[in-house]
């Protein structure tokens, strides 16, 4: 598009950025909600002696999320990297719960 096709490119840019900011805020709220549930998983695992990680579930989830990413036209590698990052936090916090250290931080007990 040419510059004259936009009445005010700075206003358009500000509007696009506001949309991005709104999506970022929604993602943070969704992550917080996710972590509330995974804290429950961490407490259950700690109370019953289950291992912090579940490699079979992780493999299934990676495959599922990669397929969802492809459907959404998102790079499946990016989706897998995001999930791997979250799972690493999950395992760390579940291990802390299992050792009696309790959960700490916003991502406590993610699963």
- Content of β-strand: under 5%
User: How do the helices and strands follow one another from N- to C-terminus?
Assistant: HHH
Contiguous runs where pLDDT drops below 50 for at least 5 residues = 104-111
| CATH architectural arrangement of one domain | Up-down Bundle
Which shape, going by the Cα principal axes? elongated
Mean pLDDT: 88
The main sheet comes to: none
From the alpha carbons, calculate the radius of gyration and give it in angstroms.
19 Å
Annotated CATH homologous superfamily of one domain: Chorismate mutase
Helix content: over 70%
Assign the CATH class of one domain.
Answer: Mainly Alpha
Describe the protein in words.
- It is a single chain.
- This protein is an all-alpha fold.
- It has a domain at 34-98: Chorismate Mutase Domain, subunit A.
- The chain is 72% helix and 0% strand.
- The chain has 3 helices and no strands.
- The protein has helices at residues 9-48, 55-71, 76-98.
- Helix 1 runs parallel beside helix 3 (76-98) and helix 2 packs antiparallel against helix 3.
- The longest helix has 40 residues, at 9-48.
- Mean pLDDT is 88; it is low at 104-111.
Would you spell out the secondary-structure blueprint of this structure?
Elements: H1 9-48, H2 55-71, H3 76-98
Helix pairs in contact: 1-3, 2-3
Key descriptive features of the protein:
disordered C terminus, mainly alpha, Chorismate Mutase Domain, subunit A, 111 residues, elongated
Quick description:
The chain is mainly α and 111 residues long. The chain has 3 helices and no strands.
């Amino acid at each position: 598009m040419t510059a004259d096709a936009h009445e005010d490119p700075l206003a358009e840019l500000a509007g696009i950025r506001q949309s991005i900011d709104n999506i970022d805020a929604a993602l943070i709220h969704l992550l917080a909600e996710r972590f509330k549930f995974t804290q429950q998983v961490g407490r259950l695992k700690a109370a019953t002696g289950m291992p912090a990680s579940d490699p079979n579930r992780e493999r299934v989830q990676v495959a599922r999320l990669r397929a969802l990413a492809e459907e959404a036209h998102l790079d499946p590698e990016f989706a897998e990297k995001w999930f791997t990052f979250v799972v690493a936090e999950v395992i760390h916090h579940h291990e802390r719960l299992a050792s009696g250290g309790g959960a700490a931080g916003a991502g406590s007990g993610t699963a």
